[in-house]
Amino acid sequence: MERKEILKAIEEKYTKLGVPVDAMLEGLLHSSPITYWDYIQTDALLGLQTPRTNQPDEMVFIMYHQVNELLFKMILWEIDQVAKTNEVTPEKFSMHLDRISRYFEMLCNSFDVMTEGMQRAQYLKFRNTLTPASGFQSAQYRKIEFASTELINLIDARYRDTIDRNSSLKNAYNHLYWQAAGKNYTTGQKSTLLHLFEKKYLGEFIDFMEDYNDINLSLKFKQLPMQAQQNEELIKAMRNYDYTVNVKWVMAHYNAAAKYIGGNDSDLEATGGSNWRKYMHPKYQRRIFYPYLWSKEELKNWGTF
To answer: Pick from 19, 49, 179, 190: CA 20 to 30 A from residue 297's CA?
Structure first.
């Protein structure tokens, strides 16, 4: 665009906003040039690490999980580009799913940062200071699950026959698969891990579940015209996302945990006190976002292929 066209477009934009163009232009005279560190908020990011022990590798642990949370935020951002678009094309749907899968591939591959870059002896020293905190308490990851699939697919497999779309969200929440990791297997009582998690996020989760109850990625797919639902690239993207999140990433996490708290001696509990092997392994929990896109044989062998 030429200068006259640019100025005209600027004037039209700010006139619609009710902002005097002259005042806006004069403001530019007094503005400072933007810098990388201001735009990225580098100083704020680098000031967010607060170790609780004198073990150097605790910094690796903290920063690694902070990077995870940033990626989770990117994933939620991508999901919304589909979930909150009224009429989405198969091409747009596939594009955002492929982006999300790449983010999860980064998460899968990044476990070497801990498994190869953090001494087990140091981890075993600082881990007890984290109790009862746990990666289980990542609210963003729970939101990714809520936004990716229908609630029934997140219900503990033992209770799915008793839950349907007419069940209250609170009832569905109390039967989510990950509730089992926060309860005493003998008494059924909720652990401190789960109590603190719910005190912080329960209301937010119920609101989020309600918001995405009709716009989660699974229902967005089912709402597409039949021809679009048969789009091979879209089906491939959905299957890849499902497998990457619920098998590859989970198993990468599982194998990292096995190195640090599951040895040849005796398994340690996770910091939150859960039976981490049964909680994490996909063949037990059978977390599957899009079961209708997998064959009976694939579903039967979920988590083992």
So the answer is: 179
Q: For residues 122 and 57, give the distance between their C-alpha atoms in angstroms, rounded to a whole number.
A: 7
Judge contact between 36 and 42, C-beta under 8 A.
yes
Q: What is the C-alpha to C-alpha distance for residues 91 and 85, in angstroms, rounded to an integer?
A: 13
Measuring CA to CA, which residue among 259, 299, 294, 301 is closest to residue 127?
259
Residue for token digits 């021809």? 227
Task: Compute CA distances 292 → 75, 98, 110, 238, whole Å.
Answer: 23, 19, 30, 11
* Residue among 182, 214, 201, 198 nearest 84 (CA): 214
Buried b or exposed e, range 59-93, using 16+ CB within 10 angstroms: ebbbeeeeebeebbeebbebbeebbeeeebebeeb
pLDDT (mean) for 209-221: 97
Instruction: Report the C-alpha gap between 86 and 236 in whole angstroms.
Output: 22
CA nearest to 272, candidates 107, 134, 83, 174: 134
Task: Using DSSP, state whether 142 is helix, strand or coil.
Answer: helix
Q: Is the dihedral of CA 204, 208, 211, 213 positive or negative?
A: negative
Predicted local confidence at residue 5, as pLDDT? 94
Query: Would you give the DSSP letter of residue 152?
Result: G
Backbone angles phi, psi at 304, to 5 degrees: -120, 5
**DSSP assignment, residue 157?**
G
Whole-number Å distance between alpha carbons of 24 and 172 = 51
Average pLDDT over residues 36-47: 96
- Would you say 176 and 156 are in contact if contact means Cβ atoms under 8 Å apart? yes
User: Do 134 and 272 form a contact (C-beta atoms < 8 A)?
Assistant: yes
